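Q:
My hope is that you can spare some time for a protein that puzzles me. I hope you can help me see how the letters and the tokens relate. Thank you; the sequence and its tokens follow:
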Amino acid sequence: MTRIVCQFSCGAASAVATKLTLAEFGASHDVQIINAFLKNEHPDNRRFATDCETWFGRPMTMLRDVKYGADVIEVFRRKQFIKSRRGAPCSMELKRKLLDAWKQPGDVMVFGYTAEESDRLDDFRERNPDRPVIAPLIDKGLTKEDCKAMVQRAGLKLPFMYEQGYENANCIGCVKGGEGYFRGIREDYPAEFKELADIEAEIGPGAYILRYRSGPLKDQRFPLHDLPAGPLIRNEALPSCSFFCEMAEQEYTA
């Protein structure tokens, strides 16, 4: 029997994508739900995962890295690298490699892309016409806001970082964020902000996450420790952070 694999990333979109997949294929296929534990996520993500297992009516398989202790900071320290245009090593080491070791030939992957991200799905399918994927949120025209509302209408409490105004339940201080996002992290999670800023400084200028967007230093990188005051944008849109989004991005940024 074909396995259909849903990656639950402790966010509203992946929760709804999983629920829709179970509704359509749960009785006729072997639907697997997997999740990668990350030390750097908000602890309330674990509560949300447990609530979603009840909603799904079945357990999920928890994958957990041991090489780096499931810790993105340890990945950065040992790799001496934080991110580039091709992505961040945390996703590869703590998610993608776990998936590669776990998956089986013939698995059909469920992508949690929302309607706003249909171009990412088109890019993946164009480059991988022989790799079967399902994108239930795009098929049904569901946006990120739709998914949050659907989770709440199901009686589930969204992860705490959503309640704070963040658009994702990614790691605290996701390296895909911009200035406004990191100002929010600096205010709400000073210890996590300092830990990331410290490892960035330890590695050196090539690891700086942020760039000046204007002025004489435009496009030059600067350290988080020098993040200036300015607008705080907790709801800054961040790319999805899952096994399969990482897999798709690797295809079109190679």
